[in-house]
Amino acid sequence: MKALAFHEFGGPDKLKYEDVPDPTIGPNEVLVRVRACALNHLDLFVREGIPALKTPLPFWTGCDIAGEVAQVGAEVQGVTVGTRVAVNPNLTCGRCEFCRQGEDSLCVRYGILGEHTRGGLAEYVTVRGDNVLPLPPTVSFEEAASFILTNMTAWRMVVTQGRVRPGQDVLIIGVGGGVSSTAVQIARLCGGRVIVTSSDDAKLDKARALGADVGINYKKSPDWARQVFEATGKRGVDVVIENVGAATWKDSIRSLKGGGRLVTCGATSGPVGETLIPLVFWKQVHIIGSTMANRQEFNDVMRLFFAGRLKAIIDEVVPLKDGAAAQQRLAEGKQFGKIVLTP
Ligand SMILES: [Zn+2]
Predict the structure, then answer these.
(1) How far apart are the C-alpha atoms of 178 and 154, rounded to whole Å?
(2) What pLDDT, in 10s, does the model give residues 79-131?
(3) β strands within 265-334, DSSP E
(4) CA-based torsion, 327, 328, 330, 334: positive or negative
(5) Residue 159: DSSP 8-state
(6) Residue 253 predicted with pLDDT over 90
(7) Ligand 1: centre distance to CA 113 (Å)
(8) Ligand 1: distance of its center to the CA of 109 in Å?
(9) How many angstroms separate the alpha carbon of residue 177 from the centre of ligand 1?
(10) Helix H or strand E encompassing 306
(11) How many Å lie between the centroid of ligand 1 and the Cα of residue 64?
(12) Are 65 and 34 in contact (CB under 8 A)?
């Protein structure tokens, strides 16, 4: 089969669209013929090399996968060849105390398909039989692939960790990103009033079209935390949704009202941020980490997607062989929503 593989770590120039061995399946696995695979920053991090990860080479990433079941392992129940599916990218042991509580992303052996194992930037991928979810005919492969990872992540952040309630103010930082852009529609679904930041007025307009109430251009207004303060009657917001990290961390905490909750799932601008500790204890704010989602949250958010209550946000669809340029575009932050590759 063809894959967008790399044999050494580095920039997009290391990616080669080349022939690789066909994957095989075990008794509890299915083979999925990939029809669409969306890009995430994770693809870039793995390609550049994560020292702790010990990625086997050659490797190909890709964790947002939709396709057709091509082969079914002997022990897999209820999955048939030809079924159109979305793939849950969680890799879990199923046995540890967290798995037993249903907290997949806290599993002691937790991994992500396409990060810890070879992924969907290829014609075929092997996944566990209970990680495929049938797609309704109304949902395209491209829409499904673009939806999965960012929405399971944003759902856990906004609903489970952020506990957004009707009428609450929600600040979403850097709204061009995949998690941030869809967090707008999820926060709206929860009844929140949404404030977004971006360096780009066009992205602020797109966020307003998704339901954002207030847009702040942080390039034009370096003191954007003050604008958040003004936009909330000098109270601050109930919830901040963060994945930018170092560049915004200090002001994100500043933007919280007393008892507010900052939920973070990433640090794309850098891993070390400045925290004013008195602000944390005096305003009694909560700083909450969040990674991916558990199976229940995955099913909940996919059900709302299938019902048409949450939309896929697609920036562009590109052939897999042109994936290097697409990854460069993602690295430069030029997209709004997801870039989808099709083998
Ligand atoms: Zn586990």
Answers:
(1) 9
(2) 999 999 999 999 999 999 999 999 999 999 999 999 999 999 999 999 999 99
(3) 286-289, 314-319
(4) negative
(5) I
(6) yes
(7) 15
(8) 6
(9) 29
(10) helix 295-306
(11) 21
(12) yes
What pLDDT, in 10s, does the model give residues 120-161? Answer: 999 999 999 999 999 999 999 999 999 999 999 999 999 999
Maximum Cα interatomic distance, the chain, rounded to a whole number of Å? 61
For 324-343, the pLDDT digits (tens) are: 999 999 999 888 889 999 99
Distance 72 CA to ligand 1 centre (A): 24
For residue 100 the two structure tokens come to 């037993």
Cα–Cα nearest to 170, from 151, 207, 145, 196 = 196
**112 C-alpha to ligand 1 centroid (Å):** 13
Query: 91 C-alpha vs ligand 1 centroid, how far in Å?
Result: 9
Nearest-angstrom CA–CA distance, 252 and 222: 13
**Exposed/middle/buried for 94, CB within 10 Å: 0-12, 13-18, 19+?**
exposed
Please tell me the pTM assigned to this model. 0.95
Map residue 46 onto helix, strand or coil.
helix
Distances from the Cα of 27 to the Cαs of 40, 127, 256, in angstroms?
30, 11, 50
Tokens matching residue 177:
């990103």
**One-letter identity of residue 114:** G
Residues around the ion ligand 1 (C-beta < 5 A): 92-93, 96, 99, 107
Q: Look at phi and psi of residue 98 and say left if phi exceeds 0, alpha if psi is from -120 to 50, else beta.
A: alpha
Closest CA to 242 of 209, 204, 290, 284: 290
